Amino acid sequence: MQERQAWILNGFVGILLILVAIIGGVFMLIQEVPLIGLSLIAIGGLLASGVTVVQPNQSQVVIFFGKYLGSIRNSGLFVTVPLTIRRTISLRVRNFNSKKLKVNDVEGNPIEIAAVVVFKVVDSAKAVFDVDSYEEFVAIQSETAIRAVATRYPYDTFENVELTLRGNADEISDELAKELQDRLEVAGVEVIEARLTHLAYSTEIASAMLQRQQATAILSARKKIVEGAVSMAQMAVEQLEQDGILDLDEERKVNMVNNLMIAIISDRGTQPVVNTGSLY
């Protein structure tokens, strides 16, 4: 199905024609010309059955005995084809808030996820004829798309080598919107925006995953500290040798680097030991 413009006539002109036909029919009946009078009244009644009012940001799908004649998108008072059924479709921007869904991320961890989808109908013919109920279709396909996207990425990672659901919200939202648009195209619906509104580990593993996150964060921080400590120790030794302050052999270099590493990496503040020499 493809939306097209239905035949319409300005409503005020149509009402004027209806009144003229009815008044003319009554006048003919008074003049004892029943055939013409009844014909005019019947014509006025038929035209009156096509009177319709379209609100702003709405569309009316015109159906004549099971055949799609077109849609009326202009707002106002109109007269369309008589004896037709007209179904009103809202073209306004609307939100769909999904419920919290429990799914497994790419690593198999159960998570809770929810999203809000901003959409509007752009093709009223597809919305009416290609799906049973486009609103229900949007709800089901939105939840399906959220599940599909959530299973492609991990909830979180400290490696910074891939997209994550928690750390790359904009990229995930863009992919979710594209996934939804592909699914909702058949219903004549345009996805304006899709955003995650809830993201968390499932309650049964939340405590364990928090400990895992803490451990991973500690290991990552330790790695950075060790890298920095090695660099600082190397710089200190090179600077001392370059300035000629100390002339260290290999064993003393090792001891100095060891002391610097302990001082930098230790969780507690170091206590300096001052060698004052022997008292005797």
TrEMBL record:
<dbReference type="InterPro" id="IPR001107">
    <property type="entry name" value="Band_7"/>
</dbReference>
<protein>
    <recommendedName>
        <fullName>Band 7 domain-containing protein</fullName>
    </recommendedName>
</protein>
<keyword id="KW-1133">Transmembrane helix</keyword>
<keyword id="KW-0812">Transmembrane</keyword>
<keyword id="KW-0472">Membrane</keyword>
<feature type="transmembrane region" description="Helical">
    <location>
        <begin position="7"/>
        <end position="30"/>
    </location>
</feature>
<dbReference type="InterPro" id="IPR036013">
    <property type="entry name" value="Band_7/SPFH_dom_sf"/>
</dbReference>
<feature type="transmembrane region" description="Helical">
    <location>
        <begin position="36"/>
        <end position="54"/>
    </location>
</feature>
<dbReference type="Pfam" id="PF01145">
    <property type="entry name" value="Band_7"/>
</dbReference>
<feature type="domain" description="Band 7">
    <location>
        <begin position="49"/>
        <end position="213"/>
    </location>
</feature>
